[in-house]
Amino acid sequence: MPVELHEDPFEHRLGDALRQAGGAFEANGAALVAGGEVRGRRLLRRRRATVAGGVAGVALAGVGGALLVPGGGSGDGGSVAAAPTAKPSASASASASPGPSRPSRPMSGEELLRTLKRLLPEGEFSDEDSRGTGAAFGPYARLVYDDGKGAAAIGISLGRVEPGSQQARQVTTCPAKELVPHDACSTSRLPDGSLLMLFQGYEYPDRRVDTKRWNAELVTPEGHHVSLNEWNAEAEKDAPVTRPDPPLSTAQLKEVVTAEDWRTAVDAVPEETEAPKEPTASATSPAEPPAADGQAIQKTLIGLLPKDVKVVSKGGQEGEYGFVVVDDGKGATFVQINVQPGMSDVESELFGPDAEVLPDGTKVTTRQGQGDDKGTGLVMWTVDTIRTDGLRVVVSAFNSGSQKTAPTRDTPALTMGDLRKIATSEQWERLVRTG
User: Fold this and answer.
1) How far apart are CA 383 and CA 395, in angstroms?
2) 8 Å CB contact between 21 and 59
3) How far is CA 286 from CA 63, 104, 349, in A?
4) Do 217 and 130 fall into the same domain?
5) pLDDT tens, position by position, for the chain (435 residues)?
6) Cα–Cα–Cα angle for 60, 38, 31, nearest 5°?
7) Residues 89 and 167 in one domain
C-alpha cells in the first residue's frame, strides 16, 4: 500500500505487518489480535476488537523489517525503506547514550542517499527517495540498485529504541518459521555489544508471489536502530521479479547496516522534548493487569493438550501469546493461544448477545470456518472466552502445520471439545495471578 510522506507510515503499515507476522484471516470475520509492547496493549485493544469475532493472533516479535516498512514518498507504490521505530523517552535516551553530544546540524535526505550509494557495491542507481533526520516521521533513504544482474529495491531507515527493551529484542529476534516462513535467519551479538539480525525471507509469507525480502536489523547498546531491506524486484510490491535473489549477500548486508555513518545519522535525530507519562491507576482507570509470560503460556498449553497428540514444535513471545504444532499421526496441526488480561472494556465488541454464558459467568463463542481467503482448503477452528474479571483466552487450531502452508489433513487434530477444554481451564486464572 503506497503511503504519502505526510502520513504516518507505521500507522498505515501496521495492519499489513501484523498480517505478515502471523497471517491475518480476512474472510469469515476472523481478525488478527496482536500484542506488541505490553504497556501498549490497551492502545491496541480497540484495533484488535474492531472486527467482530477476533481470533488468536501473533506477536510482532521477530518480523524485522516486515513490521517497519514505510511509504515510498512518491505515491508510486514502490516503498522500500523501513519506518522509524519508536523513540525512547528523553530520560531513557540520556541514560542510554553516554557518548558524544548529538550533532546540532540535521542530515538531509540527500546526504543519507549519498551515504547509502557509497556503501553499496558499484552499480547504477535510479528511483531515489529519502527523508532527512529532521523529518517528523524519521529518516530513511531508498533507491533502485542495478549491479548488472537485475534491478533491485534497497532501503534503509534509522531510529532509536531503548536498549534492552522488549522492542529492541523483538526487532532482532528471528521469527518462528511457523509464523513467518523464511529460508534463513540468524541473530548475533557483535564485539561492541550490538545485536544484529540477518533475515532471508519473502515479501509475501504465503509465497503467492516469489518476491524475496532480505533484511538486516541492528540495535546498538546506545539505542541506535538501523533497518536495511532489499528485494529481488524494483519495488517492494507489485513489481516483477528481476533476479533470483536480492543483490546483497548477508555479509554485505552486515557491512552496510553496521557502518558508523548510520549511528552518526541517528545521533542527529532530534530528541523528544518530553518523556511520555505512564498512565496512573485511579478509581476510573485501574492499573493495567500484567501480561502472562509467553513461556508459561506455552508450557500450560502443552499440559492441556490431548494425550494422543505429539508436540513437534513450539514457540511464542514474551507475553500473551504461544503456539505449538502437534501431530496425532495423521498430519500436523498448528495451535495458537492468546491469554489477555484486562479485556473487559471491549467485551461487548468481542462477545455478542448470543455468546454462551457458563455458570461462573465466563462467556464462550466458537467459530469453524476457512483459515484464509485464498481457497486453499485451510480450516481454522476457534474457541474464544472471557472471564468476569476481563481475562480473555482464545485458542485456535488449523488443519496445517502453520497459518501459511497448505493443509496437511481435512480437519485439525484437536476437536472443538479439546479447544473448549483448553480455553476454559482454570489454569489460566492461576497463571495470570502468579504472573
Assistant:
1) 6
2) yes
3) 32, 42, 20
4) yes
5) 222 222 333 233 333 333 333 333 333 222 223 233 333 344 344 334 432 233 334 333 333 333 233 333 333 333 333 333 333 333 333 333 334 445 447 899 999 999 999 999 999 999 999 999 998 889 999 999 999 999 999 999 999 999 888 888 889 989 888 888 889 999 999 999 999 999 999 998 777 888 999 999 999 999 999 999 999 999 998 899 999 999 999 999 999 999 999 999 999 998 763 334 444 444 444 555 666 778 889 999 999 999 999 999 888 666 788 999 999 999 999 999 999 999 999 999 999 999 999 999 999 999 998 877 666 788 999 999 999 999 999 999 999 998 878 899 999 999 999 999 999 999 999 888 765
6) 50
7) yes
- Residue 31 placed within a domain: no
CA angle 382–387–393, rounded 5-degree value: 35
Question: What is the Cα 4 distance to its own chain's centre?
Answer: 22
Cβ-based neighbour number of residue 224 at 10 Å = 23
At 92, is the secondary structure helix, strand, or coil? helix
Type of residue at 70: P
Parent domain of 214: 9-23+58-267
CA angle 86, 134, 161 (to 5 degrees): 20
State the CATH number of the domain containing residue 307: 3.40.1000
36 assigned to some structural domain:
no
Do 419 and 319 belong to one domain? yes
* The three three-digit cell numbers of residue 400, written as one number: 496445517
Give the domain-ending residue among 267, 284, 304: 267
Residues 6+ apart with CB under 8 A from 60: 17, 18, 21, 34, 35, 36, 67, 170
Residue 219 DSSP one-character state:
E
Count: domains in the chain: 2
- The shares of helix, strand and coil residues in the chain, as percent rounded to the nearest 5, are 25, 25, 50
Cell reading at 27: 474472510
Please indicate, yes or no, whether residues 239 and 350 belong to a single structural domain of this protein.
no
